[in-house]
Write a structure and sequence with these properties.
The chain has 298 residues and is of the alpha+beta class. The chain is 47% helix and 14% strand. Among the domains are: 42-105 and 256-297; 110-186, Orthogonal Bundle (Ribonucleotide Reductase Protein R1, domain 1).
Amino acid sequence: MVVIFQERGIALVQVLIISFVLAALGLFILQTTRSQVQVASSIQQSFELRLELEKAEAQLLHSLLTLPSRQNKSSSNELVKNWNFYGKPFKFSQHTTVTIQDLNALISINSTNINMLERLFAQLGVDGHTVQTFSDSLVDWKDNDSQKSLNGAESSYYQELGLRGPRNGYLQSMEEVRFIKGAENIPTKVWEKYFTVMPTTSFNPLRAPKAVLGALVGQGEKLNRLVELRKDNRLTNTDFYQITGIDGDEFISFIPGETMRVNIEVANNGQRVSKSFIVVVRKVSAIRPVSITDVVWN
């Protein structure tokens, strides 16, 4: 009898062990299945975000090619209703935000007057020594001679530090700016937001970010009035002249530029995908109306 109870006890333990193993295996399979479902769902959402971004890009390029590049609140096109060309993000759809910046309204490292560059830095709170060091070093970086400016740097400076430079020519990308003496003390976001290496032939103040506009007209009531009118979509060439006394010349032009920096971002349920690029729109060209370069995802 004792033997029978012992055998039954062993059998019960075996059943319990097997049940535990099966339960653990079932739990593992369930968790694995849930994980795979979550991964599949995440991939699907990511694909949907990418699709939404591509759709926004296609509509944006079509609108830039076929419609005047100015805001029109009565337009049936959602882009044209909301867009601006001075770098302020605007909504294209519930999940999609677009930023467009006319590069003719930024400060060109390769062609803009050094005085305006220095005024912008001063306005942004960059200390005077850093400003002078960078502006002098920028001149040395681009010129063909080996004569060092007062606060600048020529080949010997960079060689001692094991660095590249100077180019002795125009900069080819904004990344190259970081190699110039003094640039390391200026925040990256400043370079990204207010500067370009595009050799702009003129400057369009109507499309300039507020800080760049302030570097041209100065801080105060003039700047505030310009920003207010632009926000209400009422700023014209005539208004600009009446407020600032600055008229179009060989440097100032109120004609919209062909080259723009675009950023499109789609975000939903904690996921985000973005794409930035430089686009050149030539409305009168039948051969190559659109050129896209400098594409960066996320």
